[in-house]
Write a structure and sequence with these properties.
Helix content is 41%, strand content 14%. With 71 residues, the protein is an alpha+beta fold. The protein has one domain. The protein has a two-stranded antiparallel ribbon with strand order 1-2. The mean pLDDT is 79.
Length: 71
């Protein structure tokens, strides 16, 4: 299941707006997990290079941690 990366992603671009992109993507991913958990909708995630539908338990959506890194 998707989770927040253990190592933060840092933009190599000098533009201030581009520096904010990794954090914005992390917030969007967390929001998608929370919405999927609240509505019981499967979340499409990549596992071992394949797209799969994953059920997101509500407690995982709140913490953002399921033990598997996002790549």
């Amino acid at each position: 299941m998707s989770t927040v990366l253990n190592t933060p992603i840092v933009s190599a671009l000098a533009d201030a707006d581009m520096q904010a992109v990794p954090a914005a993507l992390a917030r969007a991913a967390q929001s998608a997990r929370a919405l999927a958990a609240r509505t019981g909708t499967p979340l499409v995630v990549a596992r071992n290079g394949k797209l799969v539908e994953a059920e997101i338990p509500l407690e995982v959506a709140k913490t953002g941690n399921s033990g598997a890194p996002v790549h």
